[in-house]
């Protein structure tokens, strides 16, 4: 009985700690929330930020990467990408893919997901909802990390003909077998008995102490921590993380181990048809010290992409920027609004239709 009471008390304390942390570090300036239903019954959340003065017809979709949610682009920093794009005259839709943010499964107890589900089910549902809201059949897709990979692969599948332009930021379209990443992916699957690794609760637990003590090694892999102020680290940990699906981790493990981007069900090649898409202008942005999408990977992606209009922007001191950039700080770094965002805004402005 005593053991049960101790466990119950610890669970109550943990729940209170997580709840209070999220309240304390809540995000302000929230956009309008729309609900999107996928073909298999998932309810996704789509956050709409309207421009003060619309200058461009095609709306922008901001798609987060692995283990993140929409708040990654709606971060409460000095200026975030969603607001910058809205101020530039774009209608901006920031998404929560299945399992992230406020998305909800039709049967939560039996929920599972793969990257294929994001590509073939989430993307078309998001595009249909945006067309219903704006009347625009084409969008400008901006994805960070896996969010960019999803956009690229979807461009040859259910999003074929529906992307006006595409921007990838720190998105690895190529992988080399790396023992550290393979061990991390296997470990994540091991500790995902209910279908997903509980990254959201873990990140929130440690949010109040972030920035006060040296960050763990894994944090330096996901971002160049020196580019993110301590206060911003605390807000990020409390808001932007999402659980990691076992099916997504398993598919990524296969990609890293084989170097191939394949469908989880039938093993078919996803990358080659996507790289062959010619009619989607593509901007590839890479960070100088990004450990998840190194410069060589960004260069290889650029070299093999067959888009008739393509551009490669590398961000770091060697390329005239204020800082060297890792992975996540390409979006949430303290000076990303001056080092990274202008390239995104300029490229989208060039390829969108003015109104």
Folded structure, characterized:
The protein has 355 residues and is an alpha/beta fold. Helix 3 crosses helix 4, helix 5 (179-190) runs antiparallel to helix 9 (246-258) and helix 6 (199-206) runs antiparallel to helix 8. Helix 2 (81-87) links the parallel strand 3 (60-63) and strand 4 (92-96). It starts with a helix and ends with a helix. The strands form 2 sheets. It has an 8-stranded mixed β-sheet with strand order 1-2-4-3-5-6-9-10, with helices on both faces. The chain has a single domain (2-351), classed as Rossmann fold. It contains 14 helices and 10 strands.
- What class do helices, strands and sheet pairing give? alpha/beta
The name of the CATH architecture is 3-Layer(aba) Sandwich
Shape: globular
Count of β-strands: 10
Low-confidence parts lasting 5 or more residues at pLDDT below 50? none
Task: State the helicity in percent bands.
Answer: 40-55%
Please list the strands of the largest sheet in the order they lie side by side: 1-2-4-3-5-6-9-10
Per CATH, the class reads Alpha Beta
Query: Biggest β-sheet: count, sense, barrel?
Result: 8 strands, mixed
Instruction: Kindly estimate the percentage of residues that lie in beta strands according to DSSP.
Output: 5-15%
What is the CATH third-level topology name? Rossmann fold
* Mean pLDDT figure: 93
Number of domains: 1
From the N-terminal CA to the C-terminal CA, the straight-line distance is: 69 Å
Q: Helix segment count?
A: 14
| Rg over CA atoms | 19 Å
Task: Say which CATH homologous superfamily is assigned.
Answer: Alpha/Beta hydrolase fold, catalytic domain
Helix and strand pattern = HEEEHEHEHEHEHHHEHHEHEHHH
């Amino acid at each position: 009985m005593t053991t049960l009471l101790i466990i119950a008390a610890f669970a109550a304390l943990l729940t209170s700690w997580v709840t209070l942390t999220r309240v304390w570090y809540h995000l302000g300036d929230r956009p309008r929330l729309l609900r999107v239903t996928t073909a298999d019954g998932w309810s996704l959340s789509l956050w709409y930020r309207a421009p003060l003065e619309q200058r461009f017809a095609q709306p922008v979709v901001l798609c987060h990467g692995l283990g993140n949610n929409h708040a990654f682009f709606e971060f409460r920093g000095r200026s975030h990408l969603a607001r910058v794009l809205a101020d530039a005259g774009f209608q901006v839709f920031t998404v929560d893919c299945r399992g992230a943010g406020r998305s909800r499964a039709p049967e939560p107890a039996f929920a599972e997901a793969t990257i294929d589900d994001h590509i073939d089910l989430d993307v078309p549902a998001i595009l249909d909802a945006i067309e219903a809201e704006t009347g625009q059949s084409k969008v400008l897709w901006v994805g960070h990390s896996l969010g960019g990979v999803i956009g690229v692969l979807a461009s040859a599948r259910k999003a074929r003909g529906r992307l006006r332009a595409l921007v990838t930021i720190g998105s690895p379209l190529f992988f080399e077998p790396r023992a550290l990443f393979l061990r991390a992916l296997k470990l994540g699957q091991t500790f995902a008995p209910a279908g997903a690794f509980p990254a959201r609760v873990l990140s929130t637990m440690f949010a109040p102490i972030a920035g006060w003590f040296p960050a763990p090694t894994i944090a330096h892999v996901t971002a160049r921590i020196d580019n993110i102020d301590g206060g911003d680290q605390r807000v990020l940990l409390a808001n932007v993380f999402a659980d990691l699906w076992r099916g997504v981790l398993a598919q990524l493990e296969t990609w890293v181990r084989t170097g191939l981007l394949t469908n989880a069900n039938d093993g078919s090649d996803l990358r080659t048809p996507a790289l062959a898409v010619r009619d989607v202008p593509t901007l590839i942005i890479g960070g100088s010290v990004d450990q998840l999408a190194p410069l060589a990977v960004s260069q290889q992606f650029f070299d093999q992409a067959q888009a008739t209009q393509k551009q490669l922007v590398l961000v770091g001191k060697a390329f005239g920027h204020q800082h060297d950039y890792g992975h996540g700080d390409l979006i949430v770094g303290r000076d990303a609004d001056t080092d990274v965002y202008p390239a995104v805004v300029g490229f989208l402005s060039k390829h969108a239709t003015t109104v």
